[in-house]
Write a structure and sequence with these properties.
The structure is a homodimer. Chain A is α+β, with helices and mostly antiparallel strands and about 375 residues long. The longest helix of chain A is centred in the middle third of the chain and has 22 residues. Chain A has 2 domains: about 140 residues, Creatine Amidinohydrolase, Chain A, domain 1 (3-Layer(aba) Sandwich); about 220 residues, Creatinase/methionine aminopeptidase superfamily (Creatine Amidinohydrolase), CATH 3.90.230. In chain A, α5 packs parallel to α6, α8 crosses α9 and α10 packs antiparallel against α11. Chains A and B meet through α3, α6 and α9 of A and α3, α6 and α9 of B. Chains A, B: One of its GO terms (molecular function) is aminopeptidase activity.
Chain lengths: ~375, ~375
Amino acid sequence: MSDVHVSRRARLRERCAAHGSGAASAVLVTRPANIRYLTGGAPPPAALLLTPDGRDTLLGPPLATRAETAPGSWGNVSSDGPLHNCPLPPGEDDPALTATGLAVAAGADSLALEEHHLTIARYRALAAAAPGLRLTGLGCAVEQQRLVKDEEEISALRTAAEMTDQALGELLESILVGRTERHLALELERRLIDHGADGPAFPTSVGTGGNAGISGHQPTDLRVEEGDFLSVCLGARYRGYRCQIGRTFVIGTAPADWQIDLYDLVFAAQRAGREALAPGAAYHEVDRAARQPLDAAGYGVALAARMGHGVGLEIGEDPQLTPAAMGKLDACVPVTVEPGVHLPGRGGVRIDDTLVVRPQADGGPELLTITTKELLAL
Amino acid sequence: MSDVHVSRRARLRERCAAHGSGAASAVLVTRPANIRYLTGGAPPPAALLLTPDGRDTLLGPPLATRAETAPGSWGNVSSDGPLHNCPLPPGEDDPALTATGLAVAAGADSLALEEHHLTIARYRALAAAAPGLRLTGLGCAVEQQRLVKDEEEISALRTAAEMTDQALGELLESILVGRTERHLALELERRLIDHGADGPAFPTSVGTGGNAGISGHQPTDLRVEEGDFLSVCLGARYRGYRCQIGRTFVIGTAPADWQIDLYDLVFAAQRAGREALAPGAAYHEVDRAARQPLDAAGYGVALAARMGHGVGLEIGEDPQLTPAAMGKLDACVPVTVEPGVHLPGRGGVRIDDTLVVRPQADGGPELLTITTKELLAL
């Protein structure tokens, strides 16, 4: 992976240079997912410094405590030749502070920071430590670079989606009536790991009865009963990459008419959202495609703020598919489409897929989570 | 719980007033654990505003999306009479920004912020939104208030510790040889929930063979073998409160001499740390008590940065038991004592307990995690 990280850092340098950073400008990256993207990973607290002399330095805990935190991640990094690993001096626990000193020593006159990640307290400490250094904003340059994935990243997402489909498929073959939301969620997470996942991409959500269809519902001790809607939302994390699937089922043999109607409505909305995915489509158009059918049916006021979001090293990363989002999809951007309706006291339906935006010439959006979206009665 | 939260907020107001905040000063709390401490909880993103007119306002997602995020937490809060729940206006996703407007409307001339939590980007947005408002620092006032626990908080920790001991005890009765670190960790987490925990307090760590004794080791597919050291670190989360236990065992019937020697050394260090816990003891003295025996045996350079830490709504909260920590223990402060030694390639030993500092007259430190610390051969 080393070459990949070297070229990602080179692109970040170019991007900063193109955006008018001076020749003597250094860059400091502190957001953990951004550090992982640019280096392969490091145990927190860590910071990545790119200096005008062309040197890339990863600052982290001293070697003695590195083994105590996350040996695996550091193992990846130390094989990355052009990246210098620099332990923190004794007593220093903020790598950003050490990085600031290194930036000055390397001849930088300005330092671009992640102002959306650094706290005011840390910023003040950096400013005080290097009064001659001009502190500027890096903006979300790394997050923007992360939007479009390379095929290796998409391959990791595809593998994560396969593991997720397998874990869900096995659950559907087991007996569900009488089991609690908590136990079903735990079983799904165990099965993810059985299939090779590094862990769940986010806390697994299982909602039955009145809890079905609630986004991000935290599993309770409620037991699955005949006639319930049961909704699950889960995803595997594999090599750092996180996918997401959501499905809703009916427990028992014959779904009620209202259940069939609600399911068909959410299914149609979700399909419309999926079909709106194309290079050049505005984020808010995809949101609107999935939101409009639910809105028209009178559920507008209770809908979630977004109909989908990007996935990658983080779940819920950019792009945000919301009514107010600015920007357009590119090819090779993986996103979720996840509309849902919840009727208080009765439950509801959610259907979430992870897809990769592809041009029509390549067959259109690539569906990663392939578990059936028919309304199954389990 | 409502009265408890009301009085916690009253104490925060008093504290701010005593520290020279003007009569027209408002307070904005944004750290999630601090919001939970002062209100009982809210789904993110949320912010708590205390205004000079004596009004406490919890700002969060609009009602439509509240049900979509964490209905349980909001349920607790809305029963808290003197706390006003204020949904965010449409299109606004930073509750701190809405709070700033409310502070101005309530006649505040200054606003104290959590500068160790707010990012520079959010801070600038607040400053731009209310140019007439003086932005000051709240410091870690809420964290300091959280240091000493009331008996209700300690009772929640005690329950969490009981669940943790039970989960660990059951694991020890099962067959361990041939199972992977990942599966043992998952089983421990399942058992925590079986015993009533809301979830694990932190990711469960299981290390066998060469991985035993590594702090924060992420479980791998390595299988437990005869003769291995096996170390586990886990804790239950109950009503938001998190405890921690760590134990190391030998797999097979007869521990090797080096294993017995290393275990005895770490055990002696851990006992020394526990015995150093007393009201008035300096944080660095407790660190030293546990660190010194390991240092004297030649393991100093590879030791963790801290020999223990506070527990409560967060794992690893203050106090930090490190060589450089300033401050002294009070009664009713729950902390861990967790020395460990890891020998690369051979494994190692960790022994972690959660205890509550109590005066000698009350029997000295109260041990919450009571699983035996004898070297068991399993």
